[in-house]
Structures are given as C-alpha cells and as structure tokens.
Amino acid sequence: MSKKYNLFISHSWAYGDAYEKLVKMLDEAAYFSYKNHSVPKDDPIHNANSAAQLREAIRNQMNGCHAIIVLAGVYSTYSKWINEEIVLANEGFASGKKPIIAIQPWGAEKTSTFVKENADIVVGWNTKSIVDAIREVGLTPA
C-alpha cells in the first residue's frame, strides 16, 4: 500500500482545463495515492468577505498538505492568488515550509519565472515526473 499524499494544487480557474488534466493524470497514476486539498471552483471559500479571510482559508487548506503543486504557465505570473499561495507556502507552517513543485505546461514555451524561482523542483508535463517529484520533495506522509 502506498502512502497517501495530501496535495494543494495551485491554479487559475481561467485555465481550469490544465488543472482538470493534471487531476486526471494523478488519479490514474499507478501506485500513487493522494487527496486533493485544492480549492474547487464551487467551494464556499470563494465567498470570503475579504482578501484576508480568503488568504486564511487558503492557508487552512494548505496546512495539512505534503506539497504544493503550481502549474507554471506564464499566466501564473499575473495571478494575484497563485502568487499569494506561493508566498503562503514559503512562509512556513507548524511543520515548516511547504515544498513547491512547479509543473511546466505541456508544449509551453514561456513559463512563470516567479513560480520557477520559488519551486523546490520543476518538472515537465508527465505523470511519472510529477509523481517522482512529489515523492522526492514532498513531506513524508504518516
């Protein structure tokens, strides 16, 4: 039985198709188990009354995670909340800093420099590379 990783997948809903493809890849990965702690599009977290309330809600989602996965498309550079999630992951939690895994979108020629500079590891759009990175830099599940 493989260990179950708690993952927070940072993404932009404007580019939800890449997120959905990534989740499908992880769901179908052999000998890999995970729980998705991302913020779903229809989650009430989006109804937060202020940016501070939303930030705290995202922080709570990340708290028990073993790794933060960020899709490193160039759009990430211009997303306030993706950048905020990277800052949160780097600020540390009781268990320490959350490892950040950047995934370069398939076929993308340009990627976010900010995401790559803050990542513990950068991988391509490949299930094996992504799962290997989670196992390599992710905090070890109990």
Task: Write a brief structural summary.
This protein is α/β, with parallel strands linked by helices.
What does this structure look like?
- The chain is α/β, with parallel strands linked by helices and 142 residues long.
- The radius of gyration is 14 Å and the shape is globular.
- It has a 5-stranded parallel sheet with strand order 2-1-3-4-5, with helices on both faces.
- The model has no long low-confidence stretch (mean pLDDT 85).
- Helices cover 39% and strands 16% of the residues.
List keywords for this structure.
alpha/beta, 142 residues, single chain, 39% helix, 5 strands, 16% strand, five-stranded parallel beta sheet
Blueprint (SSEs and pairs):
Elements: E1 4-10, H1 16-28, E2 33-36, H2 51-63, E3 67-71, H3 80-91, E4 100-103, H4 113-118, E5 121-123, H5 127-137
Parallel strand pairs: 1-2, 1-3, 3-4, 4-5
Helix pairs in contact: 2-3
Tally of alpha and pi helices: 5
Q: What is the oligomer described by this structure?
A: single chain
Rg over alpha carbons: 14 Å
Helix and strand composition category: alpha/beta
Query: Unreliable stretches, pLDDT < 50, 5 or more residues?
Result: none
User: Distance N terminus to C terminus?
Assistant: 13 Å
| Percentage of residues in strands | 15-25%
Spatial order of strands in the largest sheet? 2-1-3-4-5
Share of residues in helices: 25-40%
Q: Tell me the overall shape.
A: globular
Average pLDDT works out at: 85
